[in-house]
Amino acid sequence: xxxxxxxxxxxxxxxxxxxxxxxxxxxxxxxxxxxxxxxxxxxxxxxxxxxxxxxxxxxxxxxxxxxxxxxxxxxxxxxxxxxxxxxxxxxxxxxxxxxxxxxxxxxxxxx
Length: 111
Description:
This protein is mainly alpha-helical and 111 residues long.
């Protein structure tokens, strides 16, 4: 019986730690630039990306569809392996729902 409070406290501390880690990851993801939604102006805020390269990223996205991976950046004119590697921690492709996932139901008027 004496172990119950210790186990509870240990479980509580573990839960708090996991919650804090999850919040930290979510905040880090929120600070990244989404390659699939960012404007050319937003893209120029990235280290190593100027106006021409930002426009090339947007043009690539418009002609090839959304980025499936950050690694796909090397396909954009003006971005090589070295620049793509330096951008990896600054960008995300976001978390899109799978194409076959059901859409969320719309709320009924007045609810």
